[in-house]
Amino acid sequence: MPFVVIKGTFHVVGYSPDGDSVRFRAENDANWAKLSGLPLIPDDNPEDEPFYAQLRFEAVDTLETHYVGEHQPLGLATAAQESLLLGLGITGVEWDESRSEVTRANDGTEGYILSRSVEEYGRPIAFVYAGAPDGVPDGAEMFLDADLMRRSLNYRLIEEGLAYPTYYEGLFHDLRVALTEEVARARAKTLGVWAEDRTTEGFEVEGLRSVTKEHVVLPKLFRRLVEYLREGGPLSGFKVWLEAREEQVTVVSTAHFTHLDDLVEVGGEAGNSVRMTEPPENLVFRG
User: Fold this and answer.
1) What is the DSSP letter of 21?
2) Which of 29, 42, 71, 253 is most buried, taking the most CB atoms under 10 A from its CB?
3) pLDDT tens profile 206-230
4) pLDDT digits (tens, 9 = 90+) for 254-280
5) Where in the chain are the domains?
6) Which residues lie below 8 Å from residue 108, measured CB to CB, with a gap of 6+?
7) In sequence order, what are the residues at sequence separation of 6 or more whose Cβ sits closer than 8 angstroms to the Cβ of residue 255?
8) CATH topology (fold) of 3-192
9) Is-above-0.90 flag for pTM?
10) CA 36 to CA 183: how far, in whole Å?
11) pLDDT 10s digits, 230-256
C-alpha cells in the first residue's frame, strides 16, 4: 500500500510536544479519510477551532518527557525534543514554569507527512518532513523508498542517536534495514542514548527514581516498568505482569514469534536487575 502525502503545518503552542510527537494541521482535512485503520481522533478543540491531529512518528521512540506524570532522564529526552523543534523550523519556544506546555513559539511552520494508517489511539503513523515535497501534490499517493525516508525527521533522530528504533508490523523491510544500519552507526559512535543505554546490559531498579532519573533504556520498557511499579508490586512480579499483557513481538534474526515477557529478564544477585535479551532493532512489535 502506498503512502499518502498530506501537506500542512506543525503546531506546539498550548501543547507539550516531545521528541517523537507533534500536532499537525492538514491543509485539506479530506486527506485523512485516505488513511486506513481506525478513525482519526482530533484534539478536543471547539468546533470553530482548527482541526489538529497528534502524530505518531513511525519506527522511532524518544525518551519520555511526560508519561503518566513520569519522565526518563531529562537531558536526552529534552535533546530529542529540541532536535525535533529545530528540524521543524519552530523557533522562539517558551514553556510554562513546569515545562509541561509551550506558551509561545513561532510555530505553524510548513511541512508534510507520509502516512498510510491511523493507530489504535487515533494518531496517524507518519514519516515527518519539513518543507514541501518535491513535485508531489497534496493528497497524492506515493511509494517511500529508503532514500526519501532518510530525509525524514524520523531518520534524523536515529542518525543523531536521540531515538531508539521501535519497529511495528507494517514497516517495510527495506526501510527497516536502512534504519537499522543507521542505528549501528550511531551506536558505534556512542551518540545520544547509545552513550548511556542499559537496555540489554541491565540496570538495577530501586523504585521509580531508577527509571525516571538514573537509567537510559528503551522507552517501551520504561513505560511498562512505570505502569507496573505504580501499582505497587514487587519487582519479582514484573515478568508475570508482562506475561498477562501478551504483547506479541517477532525476533527478526531468528523469525521467532514470542511475547515481550520472554525477552525480559529480572534477577541478578540482589534480585532487582532488569534487562532485555535482544537489542531494540532486532524486534518487530505487533499492534
Assistant:
1) B
2) 71
3) 989 999 999 999 999 999 999 999 9
4) 999 999 999 999 987 777 899 999 999
5) 3-192, 197-285
6) 9, 10, 11
7) none
8) OB fold (Dihydrolipoamide Acetyltransferase, E2P) (2.40.50)
9) yes
10) 29
11) 998 899 999 999 999 999 999 999 999
Pick from 38-42, 165-169, 241-245: least confident:
38-42
Q: How far is CA 227 from CA 44, 60, 168, in A?
A: 25, 21, 21
What type of residue is 132? A
3-state secondary structure 37-106: ECCCCCCCCCCCCCCCEECEECCEECCCCCECCECCCHHHHHHHHHHHHHHHCCEEEEECCCCCCEEEEE
137 phi and psi, to 5 degrees?
Answer: -75, 155
CA distance 169 to 248: 10
Three-class secondary structure of residue 159 per DSSP:
helix
Quote the pLDDT of residue 287.
72
Residue 47: left (phi > 0), alpha (psi -120 to 50), or beta?
A: alpha
pLDDT at 49 over 70: no
Residue type, 202: G
| DSSP code per residue over 242-266 | HHHH--EEEEGGGTEEEEGGGGEEE
